[in-house]
Amino acid sequence: MQWAEVVDNPYFENLPFKIELNRYGKIEMTPASNKRGRLLSLIGTLLERKLKEGEVIIECSVQTTEDVKVADVAWCSKAFIKQYGYETPYTHAPEICIEVVSPSNSKEEMSNKVQLYFQAGAEEVWIVWKNGIIDYYNKIGKIENSSYGVNVKL
Description:
Layout: H1 3-8, E1 17-21, E2 27-31, H2 34-50, E3 54-64, E4 67-77, H3 78-84, E5 96-100, H4 107-119, E6 124-128, E7 134-138, E8 141-143
Parallel strand pairs: 5-6
Antiparallel strand pairs: 1-2, 3-4, 4-5, 6-7, 7-8
């Protein structure tokens, strides 16, 4: 499938799942939980409060070399929004892409997503683990804190 087919398909409108496409164009779904939804909201609110020169997008679709991935939370600068608007999926990743690990996610899958977001143009990728630990990455590798001056405490 193509991403436009997924977005426009009425069968997928109200599913309680996060949907992505894998490299073969097949749909992958992750069950949603209220706790996870609240965590996404808290992270998004913190980003909007600290980084006023941009916008937060929850469930931000990004075209990658392995089809469409959906960052749980993304922060886009005003310049990014001016250039890319709200195209779906984004052909270039927003500056910050954040993944909140679900029980079905493996470390290998998360490591792969970090690389895919960087290949698509992200400046930072954050991984929020189930135990509350957050790993911050830039294009060079793992970093102690975000270079954007935002540190999430869970």
